[in-house]
């Protein structure tokens, strides 16, 4: 380690960077470079370890092991430590349901529930290292179940409750989960959705699950319960022992699996470690938002995504914060639902997604103006690039012009924030820029050959050094892990990097830097669509389309959308015997909702008789995108495969016609 680090420190940073990086943060950055051992040791001291680590980092690219030899427990750090710190009676969670009911849970109560549920899991046969799938709406039982898994050293695999039965089945099967935790139903915009029915459908497609725990969220009379397999949460909790000692877990043992979309049809099981992940989440929350004990934190994400894992469950609890948890739609019963909650609880730090901001922008500022939002002191955003117009609206209308906007760039894979302004040491903000990498993050923007690009040139965002929150691997698929993240750019002596990395992490994102070194994130560079901040792979959508008997071939692209960032547009070739019709279009739309979930509902479906392809048969999505957005096709003549151009042009013409005829 020491050899490499001296290598790094010898490189001068540009003047612009020195000027604009905050001073305090810069010191942290230098320390992370020059003395990673000392730096991370100091950061890690903020957690409670049963046994201190022997080594900060073992880096066998692309596999990193952080805090090797360290022993700790995530639920102990999130709960017990807070009781010992005098926060026993502090509110951990103010919960609100869409229908208006509330629950207030103190750290002590949360600790008690987690202990009891940990004992329930043990009784159901769950052991250290086993996987537990969790398919729940945003109710307190969700973090309770996750922390209970962590308490006994089992891995949780949370599946977003908006996902369909077959998406759930895929994830249960891949993780070989032993237990599933779900609810009878959930509320969305006043409607009841019978979640247990989807869960049962998923269980029909999987073999590993032995026991199912069902939370009574709604009290649905006709919830199907299978004798000997299904148990009501409350019944099990009534019998549970009150205390469960926290299982000592290696820092390098996995804490959880979280599935995310990639460029193939199969979701990727991102595996996060216990020690590195917790240290990263603790540190990034501290740097970016610098919370104080009386802050009221509200991250509006669903826990089914990484944002909720890191900044609803682990981060805020490690910091002993009080937070809001809301189970419902942001605009139900009226568009001021969120602002009503901000006023009611005096929220001070509010963290949401650009999509949501643009939606509220559309509703109009009168809804926010109805409420006293003066408690807010810091705003945050995540999930997709934020356009300057939305940034300014957020800043003025919600933040009253006084709150900095912490635009956090990161991914499921990174575990926590990577590029973000830091409230501990704020740099001048620019609307739409995530500013600079946090300490310990070595980000660069490079061209196709892996060399840094000039200011204002778009390139690929890469990471040049391991960081504590990085994913360990993909669940039972280390080859895919290497392939997806570490193979696009090979380290090579000729690359003009400031540091010489032994391996380069490819983020899949486009980015650029401006003349002052600020980073601007510019969307996905791969075949991944971001719909309302949710990541959906085109390949996943395409394979869902062709699983319908009418569809022979499918090409799916993301179309710029003023609210959702991108929306899904599909081009389909039908099998002979099937005719295009509005009924079929509706049926296919339903089919996608059923196979993936409502988040994947296509905005438009076009029936075509051919698709633009290269000679090797690869669909030229770039052309489809150009057609849909009405932009120039670009330089088709320089495409490698000349013979495909005419065919592509013909297909594009047809598409244009088809689009003219039908939306
Ligand atoms: C992708 C990761 C990280 C939690 C939510 C999404 C995009 C994320 C930003 C941002 C521009 C962003 C990137 C990234 N993204 N944050 N602040 N500015 N783009 O997690 O589903 O793993 O998606 O979201 O494209 O690669 P995810």
For the largest sheet, list the strands in their spatial order: 12-11-8-6-7-14-15-23
- Helix share of residues? 25-40%
What's the overall average pLDDT, rounded? 91
Overall radius of gyration: 25 Å
Looking at the structure, what is the overall shape? globular
Main sheet specs: 8 strands, mixed
Your description of this structure?
There is one protein chain. This protein is an alpha/beta fold and 663 residues long. It contains 21 helices and 30 strands. The protein is globular and about 70 Å long. It binds 5'-O-[(S)-butoxy(hydroxy)phosphoryl]adenosine.
Supply database-style keywords.
663 residues, alpha/beta, eight-stranded mixed beta sheet, seven-stranded mixed beta sheet, 21 helices, disordered N terminus, binds 5'-O-[(S)-butoxy(hydroxy)phosphoryl]adenosine
Give the topology, please.
Blueprint: H1 2-9, H2 15-20, H3 23-34, H4 36-44, E1 55-60, E2 63-68, E3 71-72, H5 74-84, E4 91-97, E5 102-106, H6 107-123, E6 131-135, H7 141-152, E7 155-158, H8 165-175, E8 179-183, E9 186-188, E10 191-193, H9 195-203, E11 211-215, E12 230-232, H10 233-239, E13 249-250, E14 254-260, E15 268-273, H11 275-289, E16 296-299, H12 306-318, E17 322-327, H13 337-345, E18 349-352, H14 354-363, H15 366-369, E19 378-382, H16 388-398, E20 405-408, E21 443-446, E22 459-463, E23 473-474, H17 478-486, E24 505-513, E25 519-524, E26 528-531, E27 534-537, H18 538-546, E28 551-561, E29 565-574, H19 582-595, E30 604-607, H20 621-629, H21 643-661
Parallel strand pairs: 4-17, 6-7, 6-8, 7-14, 8-11, 11-12, 16-17, 16-18, 18-19, 19-20, 29-30
Antiparallel strand pairs: 1-2, 3-13, 4-5, 9-10, 14-15, 15-23, 21-22, 22-24, 24-25, 26-27, 28-29
């Amino acid at each position: 380690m020491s050899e490499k680090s001296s290598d790094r420190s010898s490189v001068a940073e540009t003047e612009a960077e020195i000027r604009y990086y905050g001073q305090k943060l810069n010191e942290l950055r230098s320390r992370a470079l020059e003395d990673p051992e000392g730096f991370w040791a100091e950061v890690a001291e903020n957690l409670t370890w049963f046994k201190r680590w022997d080594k900060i980092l073992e880096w066998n690219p692309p596999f990193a092991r952080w805090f090797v030899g360290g022993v700790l427990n995530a639920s102990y750090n999130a709960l017990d430590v807070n009781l010992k710190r005098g926060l026993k009676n502090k509110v951990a969670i103010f919960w609100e349901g869409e229908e208006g009911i509330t629950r207030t849970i103190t750290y002590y109560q949360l600790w008690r529930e987690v202990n009891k549920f940990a004992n329930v899991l043990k009784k159901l046969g769950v052991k250290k290292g086993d996987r537990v799938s969790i398919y729940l709406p945003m109710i307190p039982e969700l973090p309770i179940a996750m922390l209970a898994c962590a308490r006994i050293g089992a891995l949780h695999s949370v599946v977003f409750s908006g996902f369909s039965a077959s998406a759930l089945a895929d994830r249960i099967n891949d993780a070989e989960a032993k237990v599933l935790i779900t609810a009878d139903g959930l509320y969305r915009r006043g409607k009841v959705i019978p979640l247990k029915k989807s869960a049962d459908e998923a269980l029909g497609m999987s073999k590993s699950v032995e026991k199912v725990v069902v939370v009574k969220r709604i009290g649905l009379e006709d919830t199907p319960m299978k004798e000997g397999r299904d148990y009501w949460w409350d019944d099990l909790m009534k019998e549970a022992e009150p205390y469960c000692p926290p299982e000592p877990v290696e820092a390098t043992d996995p804490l959880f699996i979280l599935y995310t979309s990639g460029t193939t049809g199969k979701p990727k099981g991102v595996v996060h470690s216990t020690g590195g992940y917790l240290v990263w989440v603790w540190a990034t929350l501290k740097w970016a938002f610098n919370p104080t004990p009386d802050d009221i934190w509200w991250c509006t994400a669903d826990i089914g995504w990484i944002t909720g894992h890191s900044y609803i469950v682990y981060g805020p609890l490690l910091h002993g914060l009080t937070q809001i948890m809301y189970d419902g739609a942001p605009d139900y019963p009226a568009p001021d639902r969120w602002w009503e909650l901000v006023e009611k609880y005096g929220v001070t730090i509010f963290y949401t997604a650009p999509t949501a901001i643009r939606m509220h922008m559309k509703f109009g500022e009168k809804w926010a103006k109805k409420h006293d939002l003066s408690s807010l002191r810091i705003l945050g955003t995540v999930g997709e690039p934020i356009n300057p117009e939305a940034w300014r609206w957020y800043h003025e209308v919600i933040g009253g012009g006084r709150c900095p906007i912490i635009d956090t760039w990161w991914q499921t894979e990174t575990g926590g924030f990577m590029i973000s302004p830091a409230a501990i040491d704020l740099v001048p903000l620019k609307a739409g820029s995530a500013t600079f990498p946090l300490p310990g993050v070595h980000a660069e923007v490079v061209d196709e050959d892996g060399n840094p690009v000039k200011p204002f040139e778009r390139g690929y965002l890469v990471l040049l050094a391991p960081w504590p929150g990085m994913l360990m691997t993909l669940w039972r698929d280390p080859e895919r892990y290497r392939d997806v993240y570490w193979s696009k750019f090979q380290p090579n002596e000729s690359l003009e990097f400031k540091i010489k990395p032994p391996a380069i992490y490819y983020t899949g994102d486009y980015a650029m830097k401006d003349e002052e070194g600020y980073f601007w994130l510019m969307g996905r560079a791969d075949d991944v669509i971001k719909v309302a901040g949710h990541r959906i792979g085109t390949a996943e959508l395409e394979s869902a389309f062709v699983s319908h008997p009418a569809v022979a071939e499918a090409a799916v692209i993301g179309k710029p959308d003023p609210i959702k960032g991108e929306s899904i547009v599909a081009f389909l070739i039908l099998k002979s015997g099937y005719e295009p019709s509005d009924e079929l279009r509706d049926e296919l739309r339903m089919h996608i909702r059923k196979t993936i979930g409502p988040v994947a509902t296509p905005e438009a479906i076009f029936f075509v008789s051919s698709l633009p392809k290269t000679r090797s048969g690869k669909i030229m999505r770039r052309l489809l995108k150009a057609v849909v957005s009405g932009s120039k096709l670009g330089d088709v003549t320089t495409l490698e495969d000349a013979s495909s151009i005419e065919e592509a042009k013909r297909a594009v013409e047809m598409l244009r016609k088809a689009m003219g005829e039908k939306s």
